[in-house]
């Protein structure tokens, strides 16, 4: 099994179009040691030809241009994307679906009932897509039941309900339902090795803790360094937890959580442009390194 990181940034990407924080300004002017990142998406394959796209980011077209392996060119119109699976209905994870509209057959789309609901109401992308390729709905239950996605035969997926946040336009933004956000266990049935992927992780519930302990590779929420980051920088009035993200530093933060995990690789993903870990020579980045924690970059590949 191989995972390609298509986009490692949170919503807005890095740099963000309207942001003049120290990171965004520094990247634009070339005065910091950091790399641009597109918005949150990964792709999974077991044969280097057929890929399950996990999240469809607004940057998908640029991500696909940067990933020729996802275009096997078996016909005059073709794609290696055999299906799309969504972690939630957030803009950074779903709006790329509109860019896949030129397909000649309905797009196989895996999501929870809650996410399908949001995409037919608060953000009615599926109504729009029905005038183009349409989607073939495959409902995911967030109860850790294993399923496969054809034609991948030896890759098992299972979803776990997360404590995070439905998007602001969701009818249940302030009335959380299991399935608003999922974490995904992806297992190679041949090697038995698994990845736990959760780009938006607000709290470590017992089910999440168990899934993280069982994983060989952790690919988890790296949005914010501190709970108050967006407030301190004057970028937003919301703390990390209100946005459904567990910050890295401090007691009970993601570093402490990861320290307790036996995984061979611990990788942060969905990094917000405000996060100091984006600067490769920052003290915060050195702290991560001391804890054996990596920071995902676009185009990174993980084989297991
Ligand atoms: C989030 O995960 O909180 C999102 O990236 C926010 C957004 O896309 O607006
Ligand atoms: Mn996001
Ligand atoms: Zn910024």
Helix content: 10-25%
Strand content: 15-25%
CATH topology: Metallo-beta-lactamase, Chain A
Q: CATH superfamily assignment?
A: Ribonuclease Z/Hydroxyacylglutathione hydrolase-like
What's the multimeric state?
Answer: single chain
Poorly predicted residue ranges: none
Main sheet: which strands, in order across? Answer: 6-5-4-3-2-1-13
**Number of helices, counting only DSSP H or I runs of 4 residues or more:** 9
How many strands in all? 13
Largest sheet: number of strands, sense, barrel closure: 7 strands, mixed
Helix/sheet category: alpha/beta
Name the hetero compounds present: D-malate, manganese (II) ion, zinc ion
* CATH class call: Alpha Beta
Mean pLDDT reading: 97
Shape summary:
globular
Radius of gyration: 18 Å
Number of domains: 1
Judging by the overall fold, what is the CATH architecture? Answer: 4-Layer Sandwich
N-C termini distance: 6 Å
Question: What can you see in these coordinates?
Answer:
It is a single chain. The chain has 304 residues and is α/β, with parallel strands linked by helices. It has a single domain (2-303), classed as Ribonuclease Z/Hydroxyacylglutathione hydrolase-like (Metallo-beta-lactamase, Chain A). The chain contains 9 helices and 13 strands. The chain has helices at residues 22-29, 60-65, 91-94, 113-118, 125-129, 206-214, 229-232, 254-259, 283-290; strands at 2-7, 41-45, 51-54, 81-85, 107-111, 135-139, 155-161, 182-188, 194-198, 217-221, 265-269, 293-295, 301-303. It is globular. The model has no long low-confidence stretch (mean pLDDT 97). The structure holds D-malate, manganese (II) ion (MN) and zinc ion. Zinc ion (ZN) binds at residues 16, 19, 21, 23-24, 273-274. D-malate binds at residues 10-11, 90-92, 200, 243.
């Amino acid at each position: 099994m191989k995972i390609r990181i298509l986009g490692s940034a949170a919503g807005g990407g890095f740099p963000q179009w309207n942001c003049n924080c120290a990171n965004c300004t520094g990247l634009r002017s070339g005065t910091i040691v950091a790399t641009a990142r597109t918005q949150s998406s990964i792709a999974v394959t077991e044969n280097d030809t057929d890929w399950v796209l996990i999240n469809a980011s607004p940057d998908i077209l640029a991500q696909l241009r940067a990933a020729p392996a996802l275009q096997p060119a078996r016909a005059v119109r073709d794609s290696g994307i055999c299906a799309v699976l969504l972690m939630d209905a957030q803009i950074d994870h779903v709006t790329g679906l509109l860019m896949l509209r030129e397909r000649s057959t309905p797009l196989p789309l895996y999501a929870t009932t809650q996410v399908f609901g949001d995409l037919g109401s608060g953000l009615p992308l599926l109504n729009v897509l029905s005038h183009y390729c349409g989607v073939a709905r495959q409902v995911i239950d967030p109860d850790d039941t294993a399923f496969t996605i054809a034609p991948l035969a030896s890759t098992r997926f299972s979803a776990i309900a997360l404590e995070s946040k439905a998007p602001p336009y969701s009818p249940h933004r302030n009335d959380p339902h299991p399935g608003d956000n999922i974490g995904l266990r992806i297992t190679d049935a041949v090697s038995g090795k698994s990845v736990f992927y959760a780009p938006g992780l607000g709290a470590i519930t017992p089910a999440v803790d168990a899934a993280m302990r069982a994983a060989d590779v952790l690919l988890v929420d790296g949005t914010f360094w501190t709970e108050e980051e967006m407030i301190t920088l004057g970028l937003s009035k919301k703390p990390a937890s209100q946005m459904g993200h567990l910050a890295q530093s401090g007691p009970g933060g993601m570093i402490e959580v990861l320290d307790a995990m036996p995984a061979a690789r611990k990788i942060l993903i969905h990094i917000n442009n405000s996060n100091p870990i984006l600067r490769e020579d920052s003290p915060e980045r050195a702290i991560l390194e001391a804890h054996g924690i990596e920071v995902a970059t676009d185009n990174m590949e993980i084989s297991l």
